[in-house]
Amino acid sequence: MWKKITIVCVLLMACVQAKAQFEEGTFFVNTSLTGLNLSHSKYEGTNFGLNVEGGAFVVDNLSVLINFKGEYVENGMDETALGVGARYYLSNCGVYGGLGFAYKHLSNSVNRKNIVCMTPELGYAFFLNGTVTIEPAVYYDLSFMNCSEYSKLGFKIGFGFYF
């Protein structure tokens, strides 16, 4: 019983602390490691990537962002992407849902492809202090071209900085 009460109290404190960070006019920058993907793509091998995104809250709980992603894929096609999107933070406690669009350039020694993807994501901003977060997220890159070959489900974890 005491464990449950303690968990509820900790979650409530996290919600109160996070409230001020999701207000209109707040800026944020997030750097994430990506590449822990579950993929439908026949081109994927072991991969490692870096995602950098930044944005601003245009109204309370709603942010717009831009992002850049670079990913190395062993025995496959490397990826460079530039995108835009939005996030909505639920109940001022760090849970967020996002939707974006990305223009991707895929390449290896033989092939080059340019594709457009829709990228929904679901994540959580866990505050370490008033301005720094750890942000795990699950995302899906839905390719508009050859969906079965280039779409992928992935996981990323990053650090967010709120100003």
UniProtKB/TrEMBL annotation:
Taxonomically, what lineage is the organism? Bacteria, Pseudomonadati, Bacteroidota, Bacteroidia, Bacteroidales
Q: What is this protein called?
A: Outer membrane protein beta-barrel domain-containing protein
Q: State the species of origin.
A: Phocaeicola acetigenes
Where does the UniProt annotation place the signal sequence? 1-20
- Organism domain of life: Bacteria
Q: Give UniProt keywords alphabetically.
A: Signal
